[in-house]
Amino acid sequence: MALRADWLPALTAFESAARHQNFAHAAEELHLTASAVSHHVRKLEARLGVALFQRHARGVALTAEGRQLADAAGIALADVEGVLRHLRSARDGQRVRITTLHSLTYTWLMPRLPQFAAAHPDIALSVDTEIALTRFDDGGPDLGIRHGPGHWPGLSAHYLMDDSLFPVASPRYPDLARIAGARDIAAQTLIADHSHQGWHDWFRAAGVHGAKLEERYVFRDSTDALNAAAHGLGIALARARIATPYLADGRLRRLPGPALPARWHYYIVHPAHRRLRPAARVFVDWLLALPKD
């Protein structure tokens, strides 16, 4: 007798019922009703022409024929599950899980990812842009890109690139024509974010002292601050890596004043206690080889 595809639901229901010796428990495992499991089993018994279970008031028990089929079905389904698990593992082995900053992903990483996709079409990426520092537990991300001092407990860190800060505003900003130098910026509407360096650091570097600064608008994320500036809300202190696409397409214009070297840099990080998987290693090498101009 040939095994047809429409036998598989009945065999699956039977195998679960035989393993649990209980239709209700099988139904819970398979997300079915107990009557649906019973129907599948009776359909299988009718096709085979044998009783697979003895039914009694306290429940069910396998017949000799039922035990024979249960053993074979259990082995077969376990073999299939093993192959499926192997295939999923092989697929996941080609997926790199990355945690990074939303601002850097949106403005620097995303425009470059098509290059990686073209060079490595077999590697899939999962990108998490949570602001909070992600834990690199087992089952967590393979690697991350962080902005910081370059040393974190339990992580290996590889220098990726530096950064600098300078003021930017929309070409439509109302007082743009009046800004000739850094001191003129101090009298304008200032936009800030939660970066570790801010307007006070920049004005100090620009030689502006004693000015009363008012950060009218403060955003948690750097891209939100740049978007606010692009809409003419005020003047933002931009990180060069993040501001590049805004400057390139004309949404923002760099204002007079120095570029303040960032105190912190960008690093690729991954757990020090485990070796990077091959696909993750490929992605790290690709990042490190990117032009940083």
TrEMBL record:
GO molecular function: DNA-binding transcription factor activity; sequence-specific DNA binding
Key word DNA-binding present: yes
Keyword vocabulary terms for this entry: DNA-binding, Transcription, Transcription regulation
Entry's Gene Ontology BP terms: DNA-templated transcription
UniProt domain HTH lysR-type: residue ranges: 8-63
Domain of life according to the entry: Bacteria
Record bears the keyword DNA-binding: yes
Protein family: Belongs to the LysR transcriptional regulatory family.
Record-given protein name: Transcriptional regulator /LysR family transcriptional regulator
Native source species: Vulcaniibacterium tengchongense
